[in-house]
Design a protein that fits this description.
Keywords: Ribosome biogenesis, rRNA processing
Main location: nucleus
Domain Brix: 144-327
Number of strands: 11
Subcellular location: Nucleus, Nucleolus
Mean pLDDT: 83
Function: May be required for ribosome biogenesis.
Length: 351
């Protein structure tokens, strides 16, 4: 019994010694882990380091590729922010001697020069404008009178859009087509003294096209209509417009084609705006998209003026300009939008 107890006590001593040794060995391991943790923290603070020839598209795993892309994007954003702060400090230090700020590159200021850009003092342009189809309006020989109609069997949204357009354009009348062809509608409009025929087309209950025909001799423009918002759909809109004649603002119609389209829109409204109504109709051309807005301006005091949108709002994109009145079979087209043009680029515009 004594021998067995001695052997057990020896074993216990050995185990204790082993345990103590393990405790001594644990300390450097913990230090190593702490050092590794600090290194990873430093790396995470500095951001992920990618080799110069790294490409995210080489990663086959979709989730891994997405996460790496986000990391790369975040790193670029931080670098850009640091560079911006550095430049700001340098400018502050230099003061008046600082170099002028760089003009940011945009699609507008990188636009390819168009040969048909109009010089306001050009005699040839002045002669053309004096003899074109709108010269009678600009010489105050005619007053605009507009007929607004729709495609056959219009839905509620298109009907409301036509009614709201009639409140924007003075002397506009809304009539329903009742299945009549446009070739039969145009002579009736001319005989009743209308100067414009406006047709709103729809697709799946949404207005998607506009045909604007100047009477009696044309031209006829076909537009794609998008982003239509009626008055009820607009936030912070003002009260319904009054019957006062609004002012008309035409922006960025610089080319020969743009000039003719701008004159076409101008001839929709009477000559003398009634400034008492404080209403403005704006046609703003940007990258060949024509944005329409209708505002009322409010005088807050002698220096401050606010604007209040009345609606509706929509965007137009010119599809074609045809000489004469509407003729889909034998009409002569002055300009047609070509979708797959060989020399097309994002920096080439026509209006």
């Amino acid at each position: 019994n004594a021998t067995t107890s001695e052997s057990v006590s020896k074993k216990k001593g050995k185990t204790k010694k082993v345990k103590r040794k393990v405790k001594h060995d644990e300390a450097p391991v913990q230090e190593m882990e702490q050092a590794e943790g600090e290194e990873t923290e430093k790396k995470s603070e500095s951001g992920p380091c990618f080799p110069p020839t790294f490409s995210v598209s080489e990663i086959k795993n979709k989730q891994r590729r997405h996460s790496m892309f986000l990391k790369l994007k975040e790193e670029k954003r931080k670098q850009k922010l640091e560079l911006k702060k550095k430049k700001k400090k340098e400018r502050k230090a230099l003061g008046d001697k600082a170099p002028p700020k760089e003009v940011p590159k945009t699609i507008e200021n990188q636009r390819i020069y168009d040969e048909t850009t109009v010089n306001p003092e050009d005699e040839e342009v002045a002669f053309d404008e004096g003899t074109d189809e709108f010269s009678a309006y600009f010489n105050r020989l005619t007053n605009p009178k507009v007929l607004i109609t729709t495609s056959d069997r219009p839905r509620g949204r298109t009907v409301r859009f036509c009614e709201q357009l009639a409140t924007v354009i003075p002397h506009a009348h809304v009539y329903y087509r009742r299945g009549l062809a446009l070739k039969r509608v145009i002579p009736q409009c001319v005989s009743r003294g209308f100067t414009y025929l406006m047709v709103i087309n729809e697709d799946r209950k949404v207005p998607n096209g506009l045909v604007l025909c100047h009477l009696p001799d044309g031209p006829t423009a076909h537009f794609k209509v998008s982003n239509v918002r009626l008055r009820k759909e607009m936030k912070r809109r003002g009260k319904d417009p009054t019957e006062h004649v609004p002012e008309v603002i035409l922006n960025n119609f610089t080319t020969r084609l743009g000039h003719s389209i701008g004159r076409m829109f101008a001839a929709l409204f009477p000559h003398d705006p009634q400034f008492v109504g404080r209403q403005v109709a704006t046609f703003h051309n940007q990258r060949d998209f024509i944005f329409f807005r209708f505002h009322r301006y409010i005088f807050k005091n002698e220096k401050k003026v606010g604007i209040q949108e009345l609606g509706p709002r929509f965007t137009l994109k010119l599809r074609s300009l045809q000489k004469g009145t509407f003729d889909s079979k034998f009409g002569e087209y002055e300009w047609v939008h070509k979708r797959h043009e060989m020399d097309s680029s994002r920096r080439k515009f026509h209006l």
